[in-house]
Design brief:
Blueprint lengths: L5 H22 L20 H13 L18 H13 L8 H14 L2 H13 L4 E4 L15 E5 L2 E8 L10 E7 L10 E7 L5 E6 L8 E12 L3 E2 L5 H12 L4 H22 L5 H24 L9 H24 L13 H9 L9 H12 L9
Parallel strand pairs: 1-4
Antiparallel strand pairs: 2-3, 3-7, 4-5, 5-8, 6-7
Helix pairs in contact: 1-3, 3-7, 4-5, 4-6, 7-8, 7-9, 8-9, 9-10, 9-11
């Protein structure tokens, strides 16, 4: 085995950072120049078609799925290099990706748990951004409590027949496929009897209804399955093993891309600091203290993320701690933005919401989606601290 020195690794990482930085500077121009800073939470509607074209441009240049093995179209990039990519991407103010669900969630799940046939069928479309994905987890009666899923699927010959409803399904209205957690064992409950199905969205048995949010946008959706079907072999893992696969997907969701997210958070905080200085709000000792605490909190987020990504780190509960840290920090940042604006932050019309008002409204959901604070704390209590399980009705 070839040994690489720390100095060689540092040189390689520096060259990689320069390569992606130069490529972004050169390519975020021309037809893509106006996409800087577009998209993101609460703004997924912005320049969607143009951002899709940008994602496919990235793919053609080999900048998608960096950590995947080379045989599946990736670069086999190290964790360090993947972190560098997300940091430089965020620093360049490049547009929010429309292919996040496929690249960051579904792809790694299929790589880890899928069959060879599933890898051959789905990974090329994810890498090229030829097919878009959405996540069919939450339901009206099973939001953060995923084990309460009621959507059913029964095997009928060579097809799974699916009935039920999902909610808060991001980008379902533009997705080609959905990975769906459904109950496939009659009479099962909680974590048992669930399966992880790959379901085509463009079929008569599926109806998508957008949900208008406080920000006035509608990237979340309700999805109704009425005898929708998918092929019998499009179950990831064994039938009934869906809970384990779903938890694997959630671990990927809270992985390397969070470092890029933190760069965007840092930009938001810097802009709020600038606003506070311009308006004089920074002279208020309470506001100044909150700005300082936000600065410290952001460094805590980064330190935790880097620690949990180290190869020798035991990740038990790490994803839940990460979700608690960033979700609460970002929600508090939205409140801080409103405090810095003062009374002017309360004035808006239906079509002229400011970036700070949108940040405040959308960040109210940060502590709910992707697993609420309460669920994350239960996971830490039960799986890390070994405390008794919460009593259930």
């Amino acid at each position: 085995m070839i040994q690489t020195s720390d100095s060689d690794t540092a040189t390689s990482d520096a060259e990689f950072r320069a390569e992606i930085r130069d490529w972004l500077a050169e390519n975020l121009s021309g037809e893509f120049a106006d996409l800087r800073g577009t998209g993101g939470p609460g703004r997924e509607h912005e320049f969607f078609d143009e951002r899709l074209a940008w994602d496919r441009h990235l793919a053609a240049a080999g900048w998608t799925c960096l950590g995947w093995p080379i045989e599946y179209g990736g670069r086999g990039a190290s964790v360090r290099q993947q972190v560098i990519f997300h940091e430089e991407y965020a620093k360049a103010d490049a547009p929010a990706r429309v292919s996040h669900v496929g690249e960051e969630l579904l792809g790694p799940t299929v790589l880890a748990f899928g069959t060879d046939e599933q890898k051959k069928r789905f990974l090329p479309g994810v890498r090229s951004v030829g097919e878009l994905w959405c996540q069919g987890y939450s339901e009206p009666g099973a939001g953060s409590d995923l084990a309460a899923v009621a959507t059913t699927a029964r095997l009928d010959g060579d097809k799974w027949v699916i009935n039920g409803q999902k909610i808060w399904t991001s980008l379902a209205h533009v997705a080609d496929w959905c990975f769906v957690i459904a109950r496939t064992e009659r009479g099962s409950s909680r974590h048992k009897g669930l399966s992880y199905l790959l379901v085509p969205m463009n079929q008569p048995g599926i109806e998508v209804r957008p949900i208008e949010q406080l920000t006035g946008t509608s990237e979340f959706n309700e999805v109704f399955f009425d005898d929708a079907v998918t092929d019998a072999d499009l179950v990831v893992g064994a039938p009934g093993d869906g809970w384990r696969i779903a938890m694997g997907t959630l671990t990927f969701e809270r992985g390397i891309s969070t470092l890029g997210q933190q760069i965007r958070f840092a930009r938001e905080l810097s802009d709020i600091e600038d606003l506070a200085r311009r308006t004089g709000a920074a002279d208020d000792p309470l506001i100044a203290d909150r700005l300082d605490r936000a600065w410290v909190g952001l460094r805590v987020l980064r330190a935790h993320a880097l620690r949990t990504m180290s190869e020798d780190h035991d990740d038990a509960g790490g994803a839940s701690v990460s979700k608690l840290l960033w979700a609460n920090w970002h929600r508090d940042l939205g409140e801080l933005a409103m405090a810095v604006q003062g009374a002017m932050g309360l004035i808006t019309g239906p079509d002229d919401m400011t970036a700070w008002q949108r940040l405040y409204l959308f960040s109210r959901a940060d502590t709910i989606y992707g697993g609420s604070n309460e669920v994350q704390r239960n996971i830490i209590a039960e799986r890390v601290l070994g405390l008794p399980r919460e009593a259930r009705p």
